[in-house]
Every structure is written in structure tokens, then in C-alpha cells.
Amino acid sequence: MNIPTTLLLKIGFLAVKFSNFKPAELIFISLKNIESENAAGSIGLASIAMSKGNMEEAIEYLDEIAFSKVTNAHEAKKLLLIASMLHGDQEQAGKIHHSLAIEKEETLDDARILEAEEFFSQN
To answer: How many CB atoms lie within 10 A of CB 95?
Structure first.
């Protein structure tokens, strides 16, 4: 990602943090269209959905891209794991966790999962 893209991404996530979803959505849709080889736009859109408590929508944004070969797909897969758990789909969460383990990269530890659950339960 180039500097303007990285800056837009930071602004988008800052907007989500302060519940300014409309400008964040515009940023993430633009990033998704401009950088289709990067999962960052989809991750941002999923973050908005999760902040609103809509895990099904978040899963829709992440499901396909998390298992692709695009940049940040692994991060999308981690967020998909959290969204699936919060949605109560333990079977899907198990499959995602297994996929992360196969990739031989660190999966989310219990503290990060609890932190995410706490964050989304407050919104």
C-alpha cells in the first residue's frame, strides 16, 4: 500500500472507532475498489458491520476474501474467526481456526478474543 492508501485506511478505522460509519464506509468501499488485490477494504467494511452488531454482514464481507491469496487475507481470516464466534457459529469458527493452524501462523490468543468480544459488546 502506498502512503495515501495507508493514511485513508487509518482515517477509516479511526472513524469506525468513533462510530462515524458513513465516512468510514465510503473510505473502505473506495479502498476495496482501488486496491482489489488487498483485503483491507473488506476488513474495514466488516469492522463497521461488527461495530453495529451485524455479524452476518461482517461474515459476508470476509468469507471469500479470507480464503483468497490477496494481501492481508490472513488478517481477514482472523477477523472472520472472531465474527463467526460472536455470531455463534462454532462449526464455521472451528473450520477457520483449523485453516489458520494449517497456515502455521499464530492464531488469536484468548486475551485478544476476549478483548474483541468486550469491545463489540460495548457498542
So the answer is: 13
For residue 52, give the nearest of 100, 27, 86 by alpha carbon: 86
The CATH number of the domain holding residue 48 is: 1.25.40.10
What is the tens place of the pLDDT at every residue in 45-55? 999 999 999 99
Q: Is the dihedral of CA 111, 115, 121, 122 positive or negative?
A: positive
CA angle 30, 33, 38 (to 5 degrees): 105
For the question of whether the overall pTM of this predicted structure is more than 0.85, the answer is: no
Number of domains into which the chain is organized? 1
Distance CA 78, CA 97 (A): 8
Give the C-alpha separation, 106 to 116, whole Å. Answer: 17
The count of other CB atoms within 10 Å of the CB of residue 123 is: 10
Helical packing angle, 3-17 and 21-34, nearest 10°: 150
| Residue that the C-alpha cell 461495530 belongs to | 51
Q: What residue numbers bound the domain in which 69 lies?
A: 3-122
